[in-house]
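Something for you to look into today, if you have time. What I am after is a single protein written out in full by you. I want to see for myself how the chain folds. Could you add the entry underneath, on a fresh line?
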Amino acid sequence: MEYLIGQRWVSHADAQLGLGVVVDIEPRRITLSFPAVGEERTYAIENAPLTRLRFKEGDHISTVEGVELVVTAVNEHHGLLMYTGTDHHEEQLSVSELELDAFVQLTTPQQRLLNGHFDKNADFALRVATLQYTDRMQGSPARGLMGSRTSLLHHQLYIANEVGQRHAPRVLLADEVGLGKTIEAGMIIHQQLLTGRASRALVLVPPSLLHQWLVEMLRRFNLHFSLFDNERLAEMPEGNPFEAEQLVLCSLDLFAQNEALQEQALAASWDLVIVDEAHHLHWSEEGAGEDYRFVERLAAHSAGLLLLTATPEQIGQASHFARLRLLDPARFHDLATFREEEQHYRELSTMVDALERGEIPDELPGDLDRDLEPEQLIEQLLDRHGTGRVLFRNTRAAVQGFPARHLHRYALPSPEQYALAKLDLESALHPELPYLDDSWLDFDPRVAWLEQTLKSLRPHKVLVICAHATTAVALEHHLQMRAGIRSAAFYEGLSIIERDRAAAYFADESGGAQTLVCSEIGSEGRNFQFAHHLILFDLPLNPDLLEQRIGRLDRIGQQEDVEIHVPYLEGSAQETLLDWYDRGLDLFRDSCSAGYMIFQTFRERLLPELESRSDAFEDLLVDTAEFTLHTRQELREGRDRLLERNSCKREVAQSLIDEIESLENNNELEPYLEHLCEAFGVDQEFHSEHTLVLRPSEHMLTGHFPGVTEEGTTVTFDREKGLAREDMAFISWEHPMILEAMEMVLSTELGNAAIGTIKLKGVPAGTMLLEALYTVNCVAPRALQVERFLPLSPVRLLVDARGKQLAELVPHARLNELIEKVQKSTALAIIKQVHKEVDAKMRLANIQAETKLQETLAAAETRMREDLGAELARLEALREFNPSIREEELEHLRYRIDECALHIQHASLQLQALRLIITT
């Protein structure tokens, strides 16, 4: 190669130098200036690591004056290249290579290959694999649902998929206790964020659940919420604190009596607002509480709204109406009208029951085709269910898979010290409260009983719950210091970190606490289903709190029957309340979602009996039992039955489970992560089957690899192990480690240019093959979800010397097995000889890829119009019968169809990777 003063060359040994210009030539040496870094380098002419920079037609170039041109012609004049091109004004200009900007970035596969910047064949294979896996994930029907560290349960997956795919969903999640509403909400948030439908979320919860939500969102969904409390807000700079974070978690109490903070929260636009324990919001026909009014304003300012409550109707129809009113005030505007509609839904339920028996009811709406199959008629009736799209409620009876409950009663003599005390109702139920010190521990027979029971139950884990923090602290201290029982306390006086440590100590299988003593907050939020013994040191007056206590162990995932131990003082209010819960509500053996409503019904008769039990108590037990039985039958009929059908369609959920399991069980993710680690220089160590320990090394390609800490990170690909071992990261295709690493591959030039040799029978030595990988480049807002219909759609071409297409004859995987490395000097010599041939083959490959692109785009637009068009037609027809379908939803669907079509039509090809292969 002849060097001339003024020519532009690039160093393939150090691409960071930018564009060099020849400034001095000696017989055996050449000197280049690199203006981008202000350096000069001198090389031996014989082996200079330099490649002449030649742009071609269609390339974008920049001059030192900042003028950008699209090259239309390249000519050589006295050894220097002259580029002719058009600027953004469509004016034609000619510039010498001397005028080119020194800060050149050779990033396209063709530029890098032809200028001697190529990567390992392993990196090329990694890039191709990354594109293929990304394409598959984009088109998966389970997208957004596979990354959760949760069991694959039908009702949770169905709700998450149904709600998560909606534009700005506004729904009430009202599953019974123990069915996982927090998990459902987390799945919905995760899917909305991952698919781009939402980017900002605000979660409002009771103070006792802040810790639970923070931990659940992080451990189960890898969602990093910022916890806002008074301390955090005091430390933040001036301005609106809610605009500083994308995901915010705080207590609803934070806004009480603080109008300025309310206004800041309202001013920060939220894509999704989530309110847990929504039944605590105060509303009546006469007026609304401050908390309700604030959430009402927030709901009006936010696109999406999720309300969570396990008690949608138990505290009255008016309260239930108040929640629905937050979701859609135009639809739910009048309580009397709502009550009439509720009665109509019971008629629908009766029709559905008849259809299930194979009967066609006479009262079937006249516009329905009576000749349809019963299942189709049922679907159409469910679509007309007034709140079926905004309310999801699964019951324990419908979901099944729950353990049996067994009550164990322990009558203990009441000590004189308690008998002599003058007690109010609170003290009657919790007789230790009046004592300002721990002296009651010495004479309360429940304490000695607790010691003996815990020792007899060893080594089983035991959860102990009592109403008050002072009781919990005293008991735990006694067990630890005087009884020698490993224990931990969990109460509202602890910080979030201290609560987490106590729960972790209890969960530890080897060397952990045998018992965890909780105050009432232990019955909300936290789940301890690894234990199956529950001791109720006292009983709450609210049946819903009792159900929540039992629900800490009686949950999906519990492998044993739940053993409930209740010690009580004979002749006390405790015994009376225990009898009422046991013989009246049968609450220890069977969950009852209407417990509080039943309590309110009999409150005036029950409270006097707690103070002094009379002969009328037996009549109260009989009346309560009859009323409870009738109430349970009511709940299991009518609207609940309809909602169960709409809240979990098992065949839909099963198809999602099948898709997730197929992706997890195809054994592709583990080797792919290992390949990523090799490429980026992350050390891997075998831990156990499907489990690795990843550690940073001194030879890392970048200073950071997502999710890998300095101490090392243990990762497992096994869902069951991930559920059992929270100290391990459960890796799925949607884990941030994988998603961010894939982005690191695709956002850089890693692996986009390579060269190798191969031995092929029947193919003459020296034959050139060009392997090219193209993807579809569609620039569109994420919220449109265009990739659902038009994913990356990789197109692989393998062009031989005559332009023949060999991709199907020689698959990519087979090629990777046969390819051999080429020495750098040899590779550079090859590149210099095949510039023109590569350009010619690229033109052929581009033509073939463009033909395939047009076919792909046409199919994508057809698929999009069929899919979204069918949904639009269904909702438009349904709106005539079901007013809960908002016009906003229909408008967004119409807009989405038009915009998706526009972006699909303007999609283009993008060359992602190029490999030159020479046969030997």
